[in-house]
Amino acid sequence: MKTTNIVIRRRITGLFLLATAFLSLIIVRLAWVQIVKGDEYRQKGIINRMRDVPVEAKRGSILDRNGNELVTSVSADSVYAIPNHIKNPDEVAAQIAPLLGMDVTRVKSIITKKSRFEWLKRKVDFETSQKIKALKIEGIGFAEESRRYYKQETLAPHILGFTGTDNQGLMGMEAAFDEELKGIPGRIVIEHDAAGREIPQALHQYIPPTQGNNLVLTLDQTIQHFVERELDKIVAAHHPKMAVIIVMDPKTGEVLAMGNRPTFNPNKWREAPQQVWDRNPAIWYNYEPGSTFKIITAAAALEENVVKPGDRFYDPGYYQVADRKIRCWKAGGHGSQSFEEVVQNSCNPGFIQIGLNLGKEKFYKYIRAFGFGQPTGIGLPGEAKGIMIREKDATNLNIATMSIGQSIAVTPIQLLTAVCAVANGGKLMKPQLVKRVEDQKGNVIKEYKPEMVRQVISEETAKLTSQLLENVVFKGTGKNAFVEGYRAAGKTGTAQVVAERGGYASGRYVASFAGFAPVNDPKIAVLIMIAEPQGGAYYGGVVAAPVFSPLALDILRYLGVPEQKNLPKPKTNPWEVEEERIEVAVPNVVNLPLDEAQKVLREAGLAFETRGQGRMVYGQIPESGALVLSGTTVILDLSGSGGAKNKQGEQVSVPDLKGMTIREAGNLLESLGLTLEPTGSGLAVTQSPAAGHKLPRGSTVKVEFKPPSSENKP
Questions:
Q1: pLDDT tier at 415 (50, 70, 90 boundaries)?
Q2: Are 478 and 345 in a shared domain?
Q3: Is residue 513 a contact partner of residue 478, using CB atoms and an 8 Å limit?
Q4: pLDDT of residue 43
Q5: What does the pLDDT read at residue 575?
Q6: Percent of residues in the chain assigned helix, strand, coil, to nearest 5
Q7: Is 554 a member of any domain?
Q8: Membrane spanning segments where (predicted)?
């Protein structure tokens, strides 16, 4: 009996100890959960029952200088899914995929993800949103976001820029001032039970977003419209590769308008080619300015007292520097003339002499002082700094060509900024696009005031240079820029396009005009740059200057600038202007069919005459490579009398012409003193005599040409 009691007590004790150990373990575990990991599990619990829906901040508006809204944000629903609330993914995907314009499989893959929140489609249109809302699908929700809306399509899109799907600035002012415009996002917090049902009267927290600030630009909407109108006219008349117009207030540096062609609609920027929207030609395009750069040469020389308006020059039609003759655009030259007439006539030899007299050190001093070779700091992404020969590497020939606007590349904004310094009394002003940043109540957060970079030339020099440029419009090459009722000053420019591998591209030009008005109290400065105009006309005085006249007239009248009565007009019809010609290399057209030779010469800006009868060119005067002025007549020999470089008894080997074009074959045979007789078009497939055959110079080689195909490709 006693033994039995002992056993029972031991069992009870063991059971008690076991229960104590178990309870102790539970207590330790509870302490671990409640005390050590309490905060972590509490947060997990909140996350498990709370749904956090982001609320995008409304982006601030962009306005012009007069308060006209150019860019705003409009509400748009974005569709999201809470996957663990969707009970029948196949049915839901089939219902909403067609409405969203998405693939059913793609929708299903999104709504079956193991996550608490997934976007289905951002910023859908109103009709789509209403149709999906009408389905009342559990687990499908809507967040009100905003999308950017550009109120006037194609109005200054390269300046305004555009935004991405998340309303982030991607280009232009939208990118440059993204922090100021984007605001601070908010969120909606909703509590659910364990089954995922929204709890009535439970915790619903709304953290409102903070709307972005507004951006007030220096642009004037009306002046921008004038610029866009003139650009459309340029495109219709000349079909250029590119065109730029910039209007600035020369006294403040404020950009009143800036337009480019080609252009795009920022509301649909993805539909435009990338090369159209990813760069702003007004701040990026590097080009040789041609004679518009003579404004800088003249101002620098006058400031350094290297020249005075009455100083005399003699122009024989060229100026020789080292072994090169740089011709005047006027055949035979301008003869004896004053410096005032040198500027008025845009005389190359006169400006070259002035540039060389100024000297390399001083010339470079003013080039840099006027802002060339460095960005202007206008505040737009992607600004180029231009291209300059290093001063230590510059030769007298470089100084000579730079003085007439060659051997240096500038951007449109650089050149107009420099011209403004001449117009405003010698002050180089930093170009400005933004006036201020405001909050939604109109309070000024930050204001941008006009900023003078440096005094480049004296007020007296600037005034004298302006008077000389006024003569250009009244008496010289800029007559087409004459503005009725206002004194205007400016300079035309015509330059060849620099080829990618050096030298100049045949038949490709940049026409430009830089000017300001009224001369006595300038309110506007304008640059018109037209790259590679088509249709035959490409001179700055004929293509660009006529744009300035109506544009400046409309702007000045809009600004309320009083007209001056009884102003003298140019003595000749302002639409009849002597064209400023430039130096070009004569292309080789020997051994080409006459129609192709004529096309090549037209593209190079040269005229032509024919001698003899026939359809092939056997000789040309001047020979290929000769430097002549644009518009020079090339004589084409069709008789064969001058085409063969025949030396009695000398024979040459016929080359293999297979796979060559007519032009390539003709050039090769012409260099050997042989004549091409082609048939057909395309690439050479057969020839007679065969390659390697010996012929006397002056002999004819017959070649058959056919369009490229799998059978005759080289």
A1: very high
A2: yes
A3: yes
A4: 60
A5: 42
A6: 35, 25, 40
A7: yes
A8: 12-32
Residue type at position 340:
E
Any idea what the CATH number is for the domain that residue 237 is in? Answer: 3.40.710.10
Assign residue 431 a region (left: φ > 0; alpha: ψ between -120 and 50; beta: otherwise): beta
Give the model's pLDDT for residue 366: 97
Beta bridge partners of 408: 388
Distant-in-sequence, close-in-space partners of 534: CB < 8 Å, separation ≥ 6: 238, 239, 240
Task: Single out the residue of 490, 478, 511, 489 nearest to residue 287, CA to CA.
Answer: 511
pLDDT tens-digit series, residues 242-285: 999 999 999 999 999 999 999 999 988 988 999 999 899 999 99
- Average pLDDT (302-318) is 92
543 is in which domain, residue-wise?
A: 225-559
Q: Tell me phi and psi for residue 524, to 5 degrees.
A: -140, 150
Count CB neighbours of 556 within 10 A: 20
- Most distant pair of Cα atoms in the chain: their distance: 150
Spell 113-136 as b/e; 16+ CB within 10 A means b. Answer: eeeeeeebbbbbeeebbeebeeee
Query: Does the structure show a pLDDT above 90 at 305?
Result: yes
Task: Flag whether 308 is in a domain.
Answer: yes
pLDDT at 197 over 70: no
Q: Which pLDDT tens digit goes with each residue over 199-226?
A: 554 445 667 778 899 999 999 999 999 9
Q: Please give the Cα distance from 66 to 344 (Å, whole number).
A: 39
Which residues, 6 or more positions from 231, have their beta carbon under 8 angstroms from its beta carbon?
243, 245, 259, 260, 261, 263
Q: Which residues contact 544 (CB under 8 A, 6 or more apart)?
A: 492, 493, 511, 512, 513, 528, 529, 530
Task: Name the strand (E) or helix (H) holding 20.
Answer: helix 2-31
- Among 45-54, 131-140, 354-363, 679-688, the range scoring the smallest mean pLDDT is 45-54
Using the 8-state DSSP alphabet, how is residue 380 labeled? -
Q: Give the dihedral sign, CA 468/474/479/481.
A: positive
Region of 36 (left: φ > 0; alpha: ψ -120 to 50; beta: rest) is alpha
What is the total count of domains within the chain?
Answer: 4
Are 345 and 463 members of one domain?
yes
Question: Comparing C-alpha atoms, which of 414, 333, 421, 423 is closest to residue 378?
Answer: 414
For residue 104 the two structure tokens come to 């059913």
pLDDT digits (tens, 9 = 90+) for 669-694: 877 778 888 888 888 899 998 887 88
DSSP, res 630? T
Helices (H) and strands (E) in the chain, counts: 22, 35
Cβ neighbours for 305, distance < 8 A, ≥ 6 positions apart: none
Same domain assignment for residues 369 and 315: yes
Give 381's DSSP letter. T
- Same domain (yes/no): 184, 275: no
Q: Which of 109-118, 163-172, 350-359, 510-519 has the lowest mean pLDDT?
A: 109-118
Known catalytic residues? 291
Query: By the 8 A CB rule, do 65 and 219 touch?
Result: yes
Domain identity same for 628 and 670: no
Instruction: Give the Cα separation of 543 and 492 in Å (integer).
Output: 10
C-alpha dist (Å) from residue 386 to 283, 286, 411, 634: 10, 6, 6, 35
Both 370 and 421 in one domain: the answer is yes
Taking the C-alpha atoms of residue 457 and residue 459, their distance in angstroms, rounded to an integer, is 7
Is 535 part of any domain?
yes
Radius of gyration of the chain, Cα coordinates, nearest whole angstrom: 38
- Average pLDDT over the chain reads 85
Asked if residue 91 and residue 74 are part of one domain, the reply reads yes
- The model carries a pTM of 0.74
The CATH number linked to 690 is 3.30.10.20
Which residues, 6 or more positions from 131, have their beta carbon under 8 angstroms from its beta carbon? Answer: 99
pLDDT at res. 647 = 47
Which structure tokens are listed for 480?
A: 């087409």
